[in-house]
Amino acid sequence: MLETDFDIKKMTSFRIGGKIARMYFPATIEEFIEIKTKEPDAFVGGNFSNILVSSDGYNGAVICTKKIDTIKFSGNMVIAGAGVRGTKLSKLALEHSLSGLEFMVAFPGSVGGEVFMNAGAHGQMIADVFKSAKVYCPEKGIITLTGEDMEFSYRTSVCQKKPYSVLEAEFILTPSTADKIQEKMNENLSFRQNKQPSLTLPNCGSTFRNPEGDSAGRLLDEAGVKGLKIGGAHVWENHANFIINDGNASSLDILMLMDEMYSRVKERFNVELKPEVRYLGGNNEKEVEICRKLNLI
Ligand SMILES: Cc1cc2nc3c(=O)[nH]c(=O)nc-3n(C[C@H](O)[C@H](O)[C@H](O)COP(=O)(O)OP(=O)(O)OC[C@H]3O[C@@H](n4cnc5c(N)ncnc54)[C@H](O)[C@@H]3O)c2cc1C
Q1: Whose CA is nearest to atom 35 of ligand 1?
Q2: Which of 196, 233, 263, 297 would bridge 192 by S-S if both were Cys, CB 3.0 to 4.6 A apart?
Q3: Domains (ranges, CATH) in the chain?
């Protein structure tokens, strides 16, 4: 399904973003490949919970995987389509008394985005439960990658280096009891309540990656950015690595705030923070300039 001049704002967890020239919603892997063959440069997104989309929109094509949402359990394995929400998958694993996905319980991301990012929390991450993925490679078509092929490390995978699109992923889980799984999920949820903003405060998760051996939140906190406000956005008072859209923030407000956060940490600690949030846009010169400085493009 194709929608032109698609208004993406309400789909993103930041509630920010302009019009996408061509937005595709394939319902199957076959449809995905058909679109990617016709539009090789199409940007692939899942649930847009880690992407700042420019308020000035994007002139190209975007493929959203949310309709590729099949889920198949077999013994202690599960195969999930790229568009399956992490939260949904973790709840289904609980119903099957399978442990390993408790960390995803409040994740707004999709399986494809989570594999791409090697998403993680509470001491668990995708790499720990990953068996293999069906991936679309423009030169070879569909290939199967193992955990080793994926080159997982902190918030990264081979998909960030090569033009790979995740179509579905298989996870190996561990039989447990529903009570134990639920207990772990509850622990994770209560931790998140204090340390991470819920989606009622539009945000994009952690803004910057943790530098090796340190925490971006600690550096930002000591650099005094909590509560800092630019335009319609501010740095969350409870954790300095989160930016909240107060309701009418533009992508430029967010980027200017990121630039200020980056500069304060650089000045105080001589550490150059790297963004965890990704950017999709390119129509606004000032945004492009900040993105270049922050290595977002
Ligand atoms: C409230 C909140 C809490 C969060 N908590 C955490 C957390 O605890 N831990 C954590 O790691 N992250 C967290 N995040 C960030 C985010 O949810 C994860 O990075 C998630 O993996 C992104 O998935 P997505 O489907 O939203 O990806 P998107 O935002 O749609 O895309 C992110 C990147 O993945 C790429 N991508 C998406 N789908 C595919 C695909 N099928 N194939 C290839 N590339 C693809 C995109 O091109 C883009 O570069 C949080 C975000 C929010 C808003």
Answers
A1: 113
A2: 196
A3: 2-64 (3.30.43.10), 71-195 (3.30.465.10)
